[in-house]
Specification:
299 residues; alpha/beta; TIM Barrel; 8-stranded mixed β-sheet; 11 helices; 37% helix
Length: 299
Amino acid sequence: MSNLKPAKCNYNRLKLPSWFKQEIPGKEALKIRELVSGSGVHTVCREAACPNIANCFNDHELTFMILGDTCTRACSFCAVKKAGNSGLGLDPDEPRKIAEVAKQLGLKYIVITSVTRDDLVDGGSSVFAEVIGVVKSLDINIKVEVLVPDFKGNSSSIKKVLSAKPDVFGHNIEIVNRLYAELRPEADYTRSLGLLSKAKESDKKVVTKSSLMLGLGENEKEIIRTMEDLRNSNCDILTLGQYLAPSKEHYPVKEFVSVAQFEKYRELGIGLGFKAVLSMPLARSSYKAEKIFQEAANV
């Protein structure tokens, strides 16, 4: 029996919207699940309980998660396992394992993210660079998108990742500035914006990307301000999606944003100058990543 199930969410007694129904995993999704499980690699699809896992696996789309499966930070909305800043270790064979899975699946567009590893001097940037290099060695035409942590704003770590020539450099702003102190106390809104700016300054050709979750108690004015801040930081691609609480222990959903409102934000984003905007309830930072990249590249 499949264990590709969406997270049990705490909806704070809100009425479930019609879009909440999830796709049943097909044969391809189950096949990929078994391949990934047996390979020893991690995916954010499973570790973060993504609601799109069946849909993406059915379409041979997945996001590799490197640097292990345990994060050193404790954001109250995230399902990924959490621990302190010591004793986590690294798998030196991780790049090869990821390349092998990508080869078996015939992937031509690969998304690589990670947990945050504040215990590592470079935040894991050298591992990002190694994985990109190993994947590109399979086929120089493979497109690689990275979704990196904030590296505590370290410019050398940013440049290390960019030196491996990813096609997309992503970093998620996640939530509006006002909510950082409560939900992301170890992160910094301004630092995250600065990371995106530094990436574009270091490599003007790289496509930059970020993501924002809605439904945590923010208002429209705050969302638009965040979108403006991202554009002022030279962010090219934006995704906006509905927050779904992974469990009763996580921060609760405050609001289910309507599909019409998501469309309004998409139009506003295009008007602000983003090259591509994916705005819909089930959108996540790497959802339909190749399609959105192609849309941005054609602008």
